[in-house]
TrEMBL record:
Protein name: Lysosomal thiol
Organism from which the protein derives: Perkinsus olseni (Perkinsus atlanticus)
GO molecular function annotation: oxidoreductase activity, acting on a sulfur group of donors, disulfide as acceptor
Keywords in alphabetical order: Glycoprotein, Membrane, Secreted, Signal, Transmembrane, Transmembrane helix
Annotated localization: Secreted
Lineage, opening ranks: Eukaryota, Sar, Alveolata, Perkinsozoa, Perkinsea
Pfam families, sorted: GILT
């Protein structure tokens, strides 16, 4: 059966929730990867472009989120097939709290995580890159964070077409608008990372 035949099969997955909390970095294909792959191949598709909508809710300083991005999501985005069949939505707001009236923002791993979450929101919304460019920037930031580097807000994003817009967003009120948008669309998340695939 050709790949096109597989994609046109009638089986769909309505909503697939799963957590990467038990991801082991040395496993060749993790449970989240397997679910994403099955979702793509089974036609769990949404939108006019026929792509699987995949949302990843994560926290920028959460060790499990960092490992998920560095290993599982990296393997998926490096694949020759899967990235062309998913619409990836990265949401750095997994366990955060936000009050839009007071602009009080709290994060599980403290104030620095809130700052990085806001910055990554600007990268995602204002960077002007396609999903592979955006993912690469987020991936590079998380690698820098894992190494203990403070370069996460500079060199990691050099490949983005609209880098000046990212910094303007970071330094202005627009980052708060993005946080408010993430807060509005927040799903109930007990553990991060949490991934949702839907049709």
């Amino acid at each position: 059966m050709a790949a096109a035949d597989v994609l046109s099969c009638p089986m769909t997955v309505n909503i697939c929730w799963f957590s990467a909390a038990f991801f082991v970095p040395f496993v060749m294909i993790s449970f989240p990867s397997a679910v994403l792959l099955v979702s793509v191949l089974s036609g769990c598709a949404s939108g006019d472009d026929g792509k699987v909508k995949v949302a990843v809710y994560y926290e920028t300083l959460c060790p499990a989120s960092i490992d998920f991005i560095r290993y599982t999501l990296k393997a998926i985005m490096d694949d020759d097939y899967i990235p062309h069949h998913i619409d990836l939505n990265l949401v750095p707001f997994g366990n955060a709290g936000y009050n839009p009236e007071t602009k009080q923002y709290s994060c599980q791993h403290g104030e620095l995580e809130c700052t990085i979450n806001r910055f990554q929101g600007c990268v995602i919304k204002k960077g002007g890159g396609n999903q592979l460019q955006t993912f690469k920037a987020i991936y590079n930031e998380e690698v820098d964070i894992h190494k203990g580097s403070n370069k996460w807000n500079t060199t990691a994003n050099e490949g983005l077409p609209q880098l000046h817009e990212v910094y303007a967003c970071r330094d202005g009120d627009e980052s708060w608008d993005i946080v408010a948008e993430f807060a509005k669309g927040k799903v109930s998340v007990e553990f991060t990372p949490r991934t949702l695939a839907s049709n």
